[in-house]
Amino acid sequence: MKVKKYIAPTMPEVMSKIRKELGPDAVILNSKEIKRGGFLGFFKKRNIEVVAALDPEPITPKSTGETQTPSTNLLKAEENNIHTDVLQEIKHLKSMIEHQAFRTTSNYLPDYQFAYQHLIDQEVDVQLAQEIMDTVLNQHEENGEMNASQMVMHAIQSEIENRLNDISFQGITYEEQIIHLVGPTGVGKTTTIAKIAANCMLNDHKKVAFITTDTYRIAAIDQLKTYARILDIPIEVAYTAEDYQMALKKFASYDVILVDTAGRNFRDDKYIQELKKMIDFNVNTESYLVLSLTAKSQDIIDVQQQFQQLDIKKVIFTKTDETKQYGSMLNIALKNHVGIAYLTNGQDVPEDLIRPTPEKIGEYIVSGYVDA
After folding, report:
1. Which of 104, 110, 310, 357 has the fewest CB atoms within 10 Å of its CB?
2. pLDDT digits (tens, 9 = 90+) for 17-63
3. What DSSP element (H or E) covers 212?
4. Would you identify the CATH topology of the domain 178-356?
């Protein structure tokens, strides 16, 4: 790792030097104010000292080196010749037999057991999955009917939608002027904030401004500045709490101010405390927690609990296109009674921004059932 110290009169000048020498992937390790020069200890000038680093050899995933053999191609060709409905039924029966053979804690009949296992595979909380299954099973028993296969999953989807009816799926309402996006690193906050900004401008015809407090990675600032230039949105970079307050005053006449915050290690409580020192989350503000569906289910729960210190009422789930497990949306919404403001399913701005509904969440959960 290459580590170097930079000194300049202002933070922007320091950042410019780092960007030129180390590039946009440099990481800020430490920064502080120092005084240099002067005569006999007098008339010293204020400077900013920053220690930055760059890893010249980032870890990249190794190629699996898999190649297709003639036998593989023949097998695929043979499968394609089989009638689709017959193939799906075979897969369904095979999976149902496997789940029946290895079940340990539930005593559902085969079709219900298979549906229950699908919820577990979707990473739905075990207790929540059992509650949903028991409700569906009781309804069928009361009606004197024991449905099979697709009918069971259809009933489960309806039950999921019913349970979500009390959850908020509202995005920005413009009741609050200042909107913060918070969350761990790598979840896509900066891209998401650009999508929301474009939606506010193009669909709601609102006057939008950007503030970024994410000065940890130089690339994050450049990325948001690029979006700001494309969307013709003013942007301010806040290195301190004073910078942040000045930016708010500068944009006081705007309909909505979208604030991008730094993504750090959420397990370290000091980063949450740093956020609270930089930003006043209590005055004329609303905060959305951005979570990636590609993360482990338990990690998502841990993140949500950690950020509750900021009184988060709504979350945004990103990367729905990069996973096949969607149970975390159900867990967060129903177990913690937290609203879902937006979903994202790609990198395109502003297209890949989805307004969630109970029906949409239900569809995600039951998706892939036949091919399970």
Report:
1. 104
2. 888 888 887 887 777 778 776 654 455 678 888 888 887 665 555 55
3. strand 208-212
4. Rossmann fold (3.40.50)
